[in-house]
Design goal:
With about 130 residues, this protein is an all-alpha fold. The protein has 4 helices and no strands. The N and C termini lie far apart (about 45 Å).
Length: about 130
């Protein structure tokens, strides 16, 4: 049943939120520190667990895959929004750091693309396959 996938996702989120809040308290930060990431790791671990094999097969497994695929972009968007709000309240230095990191990442995309294409051509040449574009 697909509902088991949703239940597993919800359980992972509750545990992840609790752990993130506790980490925030330990670090003296009034925020959830890594709760979403912890929830995602728990979901991946639970999905790969042999103990939960019956739960993650069939329709339940499809539910886990579906909600896992939906979960990541939604959570990333929520976290990005929180980071932008926090940066805006943090002052011009925080905003400048965020903008500069984004610009650098965008600038590195073509470089990484070229390196990847070169690596694929080199691999094809060493294995005797025809490479290139």
């Amino acid at each position: 049943m697909i509902i088991y996938g949703v239940a597993l996702l919800a359980a992972c989120m509750v545990v992840g939120t609790f752990v993130g809040d506790y980490l925030g308290v330990l670090l003296g930060v009034k925020a959830n520190v890594g709760g979403v990431g912890m929830a995602m790791l728990l979901l991946v671990t639970a999905s790969a667990s042999t103990r939960l094999r019956g739960l993650v097969e069939g329709a339940s497994g499809e539910g886990i895959k579906f909600w896992g695929a939906m979960y990541i972009p939604i959570v990333v968007a929520m976290a990005a929004r929180q980071n932008v709000v926090a940066a805006a309240h943090g002052g011009i230095l925080a905003v400048a750091a965020g903008v500069s990191a984004t610009v650098v990442c965008f600038a590195l995309v073509p470089v990484l693309s070229r390196l990847s294409a070169k690596g694929q051509r080199d691999h094809a040449d060493t294995t005797g396959q025809q490479g290139g574009r």
